[in-house]
Amino acid sequence: MTSAIVDTPRAVTLVGGGDASPADLEAALALAPGLVAADGGAALVHETGRVPDAVIGDFDSFPPGLHDLWPADRLHRIAEQDSTDFDKCLRNIKAPLVIGVGFTGARMDHALAALNTLVARPDRRCVILGREDLVFLCPPEIALDLDPGTVVSLFPMGPWQGQSEGLRWPVEGIAMAPDARVGTSNAALGPVRLTSLEPVMLVILPRACLAQVQSALAAASGRWPARAG
User: Fold this and answer.
1) Which residues of the chain have pLDDT under 50?
2) 3.30.2350.10, 3.40.50.1860, 3.40.50.10490, 3.40.50.10240: CATH of 132-223
3) Which of 28, 103, 112, 154 is 20 to 30 A removed from 19 (C-alpha atoms)?
């Protein structure tokens, strides 16, 4: 197995070229001080006056003027076109947590591809931060310190079963699937505990829960193994 391009004990902010602002970047960096740009995400990093630890991607949308401004050893071009820049980055970052900004927005296909990568790389703990909410792959077990009434949406990307405590509508005994029963628009009664039997369940929470999610993922028991291939 090849070594990661970025291998760090710090949480990492990963910046894509989608819908993101300097405020989004600041919110992520406050919790994840490492900084990596996914190809065109380099533009937002440069706009804020920062130099990333690494830029990873196929460089088809990398701002050309930055080639001469940033150290060459931080620019990592991966030419293959069988994966997205988000996937290229996530599989090459070894960190306790990645917070992704700029991976949602006007392009629905880009957002769906990012969600696909969350499930394809279950061994990488990653939160995607959007304008109104955030999403992450549920680990085998997680405890979330949520306020009563917090919207909790569960969307399976494959056949799924699990258990819950603290949800208005418990999920235990309910077989979910993307083409069958899903768990959107549930709500917390208070702190929530989720147990997942398969690495396919996406958890969607309000953006304001980012700090709680970071703490919960750091304390979560169990990790999914990397998928074969």
Assistant:
1) 1
2) 3.40.50.10240
3) 154
